[in-house]
Design brief:
single chain; alpha+beta; 16 strands; globular
């Protein structure tokens, strides 16, 4: 998974409130809205939440900056990661069928500062299109995202379905998001019996290759014998490949191809191998990082390294028919 730091993009959207301690999800009422987001974000994404102008929102929170979520690009039903109290509250309010098409939240940060998004995000938020942004979202302008990272104090809070966070007392632990994200590392859900049970499942480590005109994405020459590759993990490799190529028309002759895959028994094992690939590629094999999980490196070395990190070493794990 890609690292998140002060250079990362931030998605802006409105919601009725900010309660990750009881609802560890970002939900959509229409599946198409979630699918649209999947076509725009990577494996992990920072999402800035403000109080939407809707009947469900406390009037004191409308247009107020509420917090930041780190979401994972995995489709779930919102009730899979929601406390029983939150479920009862939704039923009582007659909104048990709303926001069910969700993605899991892995980390969350609150701010106690009263900040009106119309004032702090004048280039990103347009009140004329407020309803559109609350439903679909938009990217924060680069300068406003940088300001949010560096200037606004946040405090990390626990997320339902994730290991509890130590948030400190008083002002302890309150600092800009750029500092709270250091050191940058992957955040993975813990599996087992907590307030509810989260089932782990097998995940694939995959090596994707962009074989045709890699210079288009790399913005630099790619020497003979080298290639543009992406390392990643997924619980649904078919959907992941579809998401990687969603911006290309069906008639396109370019796109990502999965050239190697290895099945791990659980997500943490695949994530450990993914991190090891990134480290070895840069430190030992001369790969050039393009940020996140993308590299220019010698194809033979990339494939040999992948095989070395697979749970069944020594086997040729190339994807047939590619």
């Amino acid at each position: 998974m890609q690292d998140l730091d002060s250079s990362s993009s931030i998605w802006l959207t409105g919601f009725w409130g900010f309660a990750p301690e009881e609802e560890g999800v970002l939900g959509f009422t229409d599946r198409k809205d979630r699918d649209r987001l999947f076509g725009l974000i990577g494996d992990r994404q920072l999402v800035c939440i403000y109080g939407a102008a809707s009947p469900e929102t406390d009037t004191r929170l409308v247009h107020q900056l509420l917090g930041i979520l780190e979401v994972e690009k995995t489709p779930i039903d919102s009730w899979e990661k929601m406390s029983e109290a939150a479920k009862r509250r939704n039923i009582a309010l007659g909104r048990q069928d709303k926001w069910r098409f969700a993605v899991p939240v892995r980390r969350a940060w609150r701010t106690s500062h009263a900040l009106d998004i119309k004032q702090v995000f004048p280039n990103s938020y347009d009140s004329v299109n407020g309803r559109y942004i609350a439903r679909f979202g938009t990217w924060l302008a680069a300068d406003e995202a940088h300001w949010l990272f560096e200037k606004v104090p946040f405090r990390e809070t626990s997320v339902f379905g994730e290991p509890p966070r130590k948030t400190g007392n008083g002002s302890a632990g309150t600092m800009p998001l750029s500092k709270l994200l250091k050191p940058s590392h992957g955040i993975f859900g813990a599996f087992g019996d907590r307030a509810f049970e989260v089932q782990d499942r097998p995940h694939d480590l995959y090596l994707a290759h962009f074989p045709s005109s890699p210079e288009l994405l790399a913005a630099r020459p790619v020497p003979r014998g080298f290639g543009l590759v992406k390392i990643g993990i997924s619980g649904d490799l078919k959907n992941r490949l579809k998401a990687l190529n969603i911006s290309f028309p069906e008639t396109s002759k370019i796109g990502w191809k999965i050239i190697r895959k290895a099945r791990f028994g659980d997500r943490s094992g695949a994530a450990t191998a993914e991190t090891a690939f990134k480290t070895a590629a840069i430190e030992g094999l001369g790969a050039k990082s393009l940020g996140k999980a993308f590299f220019i490196m010698e194809m033979e070395k990339a494939e040999l390294l992948f095989n070395k990190l697979s749970p069944v070493s020594g086997l040729d794990l190339r994807v047939r028919g590619r």
